[in-house]
Every structure is written in C-alpha cells, then in structure tokens.
C-alpha cells in the first residue's frame, strides 16, 4: 500500500517560502529562541520530535552548542530534506535523522538531555502515550521544551474551527492545554508550564494572509501555482479568526524530569 505523504515537496516548498528555509512552522529562529529560553543545550544530546526539513536541528548544534541532535519524523521527503541540510551544513556527524513509525520511540530509556519539538505533536493523537515516551527517553534532570498548536477545549470544535481543520487537510489531532498539562504531569514530569502564544500568532497569521492575498499574490502563484495558493488563502482566511478567538491556541510547553 502506498504511503500518503502530507508534507510533500509542494507543501515543503510553500511552507519554507512562507516561514524560512528549512522551517515548516512559523516564527523562525526567534521563535525557537523563545521555546528554548533558559535551556542550556551546550554539549547536550537532543531529541527533536517531528524535525521536518531540519533547520532547527542545524540551529541547535550551530547556535546552541548541542553535541548531537537526533531528529525523528514519519515521512520520507522531510527526512531527506533534513539529512541534506545537515550534510550541507557539515554537521552529518552531529545530526542523525531517523524516519520512525508513529508510536514508541526507538531509543533506550534515559537517552537524551533535552527533548524538543516544534509544532509537530499536533499530529500525534495520544498525548498521554507521547508524554510517557518523552519521560522515558529523558535523562534524570532533563528538559522537555516544545511548541505546539493546541485548541482551547477538548469538546466539539466550533463550526468555524471544524471548517479550518478540514481545510488544512493534515492529520491534526489538537488537544487542550489542560489535556497536555495532565498528560505531562501523569507521565512524571515536574514544573509543567504552558504559555499561550495565540496573541503572537494571531498577528503573524493575519500578516501571512495579507502577504498571500495582497499585492504579491501573483508572485506566490507564479512560484507555487494559482490553485495551490487559492487553497492556502482559503485555509488562512479560516484560520485567522479561530486564532484571534483563541480556540486555536499555539502554546509553548515545558517540563522537567525530576532527578
Ligand atoms: C508543522 S511540521 C514542523 C516541522 C519542524 N518541527 C519545524 O518546526 O520546522 C510537523 C512535522 O511533524 C511530522 N510528524 C507527523 N506525525 C509525526 C509523528 N507521529 N512523529 C514525529 N513526527 C511527526 C510531520 O511529518 C512534519 O514534518
């Protein structure tokens, strides 16, 4: 059976055009810096869950001094892009990209000093199992530092939110801050903290919509195709109000394995 690729070349190309070379999520280096604020990566062994096309893995070695980053992802195109990026950066010895199947991580207990993730856990429906795996592979005293796209509550989405999620055509499995908090605490993580980033992303997403639909629309269409851009504009048009209302609420997430 052939694998359905969600982050295919056209998607990767569009998102990197919007969000920066090697980034498949918003905010670039500045937002990564905020996710990692106060986390010392010097000499650390890092796991990057959902590494995408790899700019953040390169950044964590180059700019933050991580000794080694293991990036995991579930699709071949992003893994290939991340490997190529690590090699081009001369960091193939310090960055390993593993294609994995969803589920338990293929690493022994206590393998990593830091588990990082940027806007990827949204694709993992079982937040409780994910939290247990994060706890298992962290060394004692290790840190979990992530960003993810959450939604305000775990009840039925509003019609506006359901419309937006359907337009994304990605395997979104959004959950509430309360569910993340409970999952991480139940797994054993201490100092669990969540920070709502929806005020920031509401502004950024509105600017993105203006960029795609404004005077430069023809340039976006020339690079990515008119039909593709029309679909993205429809998606962003649906997304901006649910981010502004806070029902779609990106968060930063922290926890620490005691010890
Ligand atoms: C929005 S992109 C973010 C990529 C990268 N973290 C970044 O910020 O540029 C989400 C990524 O999660 C990956 N993903 C989806 N399901 C996953 C899973 N079960 N485990 C790990 N990664 C997954 C996707 O293939 C995609 O590369």
UniProtKB/TrEMBL annotation:
Record-annotated Methyltransferase domain positions: 46-142
Keywords: Methyltransferase, Transferase
SUPFAM superfamilies on file: S-adenosyl-L-methionine-dependent methyltransferases
Pfam family, one: Methyltransf_25
EC numbers, comma separated: 2.1.1.156
Gene Ontology molecular-function annotations: phosphoethanolamine N-methyltransferase activity
Keyword Lipid biosynthesis: no
This protein's pathway: Lipid metabolism; Phospholipid metabolism
GO biological process, one term: methylation
Catalytic reactions on record: phosphoethanolamine + S-adenosyl-L-methionine = N-methylethanolamine phosphate + S-adenosyl-L-homocysteine + H(+)
Domain of life of the organism encoding this protein: Bacteria
Protein name per UniProt: Glycine/sarcosine/dimethylglycine N-methyltransferase
Organism in which the protein naturally occurs: Roseovarius mucosus
